[in-house]
């Protein structure tokens, strides 16, 4: 694999873009060798969903778009960041037992920590912010594809019966 891979997509701050962000990230990671059905892929899908939802819901219309960036460094660290143009950093909202929202950052931090990663928030030069995760990357093992039986038979000196 390459020493450094990057991918990026900018989407409108619209609820429909959350699904597009998930699909983009999972598809990119699949191109980089991580099967979509891998457990870590499911975890990343949920984290990206929470990050994108936060970028849409908590910018109060002040960020017309958000950008999802992926960086894979030396097959060691995967970084996924979501950038919006709203200046307010995320904060943990008081979440009542009956409340449906306010737990996104808690979920992101918990899932990231469970994978051995970190969550960071940085301001952008333009006055917005990037919330990103860093996860250790273990290159997926490529399954060994067995040769078809006919090819194995021929390579061992056996001949296939003729019909």
Automatic annotation (TrEMBL):
> What residue ranges carry the coiled-coil annotation?
none
The answer to keyword Transferase applying to this record is yes
Which residue ranges does the record annotate as region Disordered?
138-163
Record's Pfam families?
A: HATPase_c_2 (PF13581)
Q: Which domain of life is it from?
A: Bacteria
GO molecular function annotations of the record: protein serine/threonine kinase activity
Histidine kinase/HSP90-like ATPase domain mapped to chain residues = 11-131
State the UniProt keywords alphabetically.
Answer: Kinase, Serine/threonine-protein kinase, Transferase
Q: Is Kinase tagged as a keyword?
A: yes
**Protein's recorded name:** Regulatory protein
């Amino acid at each position: 694999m390459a020493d450094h891979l990057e991918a990026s997509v900018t989407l409108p701050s619209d609820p429909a873009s959350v699904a597009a962000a998930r699909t983009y990230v999972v598809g990119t990671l699949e191109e980089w060798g991580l099967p979509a059905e891998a457990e870590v892929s499911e975890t990343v899908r949920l984290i990206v969903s929470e990050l994108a939802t936060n970028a849409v819901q908590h910018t109060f219309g002040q960020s017309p778009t958000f950008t999802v960036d992926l960086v894979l460094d030396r097959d060691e660290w995967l970084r996924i960041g979501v950038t919006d143009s709203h200046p307010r950093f995320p904060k943990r909202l008081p979440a009542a037992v009956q409340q449906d929202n306010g737990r996104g950052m808690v979920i992101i931090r918990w899932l990231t920590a469970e994978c051995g990663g970190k969550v960071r928030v940085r301001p952008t030069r333009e006055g917005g912010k990037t919330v990103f995760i860093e996860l250790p990357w273990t290159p997926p093992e490529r399954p060994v594809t067995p040769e078809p039986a006919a090819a194995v038979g021929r390579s061992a000196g056996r001949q296939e019966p003729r019909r």
